[in-house]
């Protein structure tokens, strides 16, 4: 199912290599952190699916509003994701959880579930790099957003944050 969803998302963002590479990287880091954290198999599956579709709201946001800020992605993404997920015969309860994660992946307070926390951390790791964040911004994100030991360790390693200790 992950392969089919990856194919659908690659087709969905066809012609936009930046977006395709973004969701592939977020999926890879989310998978890594989830496995390191020992998520139960089904929770890991939902995390990986959410990582693949987390930014699906970008296209309708750009079409409707000419921009694609995080809150617009959260607002417009779930309905767009439902189309693909139901077409692939995902069960309604799985669609609901994946869409919940899409609708909250730019909301950093009251995070509901380890799967959503890990998705946010994986997206942050990729966005910090892609946005050319300063070292100070990376450290700030580490202190404000990161909760899982595996996500923290990964961010410290990726950015060689030797001055940040846990």
Describe the fold and architecture.
The chain has 166 residues and is an all-alpha fold. The N and C termini lie far apart (37 Å). It has one domain: Hypothetical protein af1432 (Orthogonal Bundle). It has 9 helices and no strands.
Task: Summarize the helices and strands and which ones pair or pack.
Blueprint: H1 2-12, H2 17-37, H3 41-53, H4 58-65, H5 70-87, H6 92-102, H7 114-130, H8 135-144, H9 149-158
Helix pairs in contact: 1-3, 2-3, 2-7, 2-9, 3-6, 3-7, 5-6, 7-9
CATH class equals Mainly Alpha
Oligomer: single chain
Low-confidence stretches: none
How is the CATH topology named? Hypothetical protein af1432
Describe the sheet with the most strands.
none
Mean pLDDT: 95
The H-and-E topology, N to C, reads as HHHHHHHHH
Beta content:
under 5%
Helix % is over 70%
CATH architecture heading: Orthogonal Bundle
Keywords:
9 helices, mainly alpha, 166 residues, Hypothetical protein af1432, 72% helix
């Amino acid at each position: 199912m992950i392969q089919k969803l990856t194919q659908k998302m690659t087709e969905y963002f066809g012609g936009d290599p930046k977006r395709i590479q973004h969701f592939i990287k977020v999926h890879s880091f989310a998978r890594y952190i989830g496995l390191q954290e020992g998520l139960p198999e089904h929770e890991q599956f939902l995390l990986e699916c959410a990582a693949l579709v987390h930014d699906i709201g970008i296209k309708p946001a750009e079409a409707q509003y000419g921009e694609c800020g995080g809150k617009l992605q959260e607002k417009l993404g779930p309905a767009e994701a439902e189309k693909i997920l139901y077409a692939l015969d995902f069960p309604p309860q799985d669609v609901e959880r994946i869409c919940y994660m899409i609708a909250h992946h730019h909301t950093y307070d009251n995070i509901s579930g380890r799967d959503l926390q890990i998705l946010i951390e994986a997206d942050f790791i990729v966005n910090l790099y892609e946005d050319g964040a300063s070292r100070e911004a990376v450290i700030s994100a580490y202190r404000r957003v990161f909760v899982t030991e595996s996500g923290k360790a990964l961010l410290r390693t990726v950015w060689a944050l030797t001055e940040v200790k846990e």
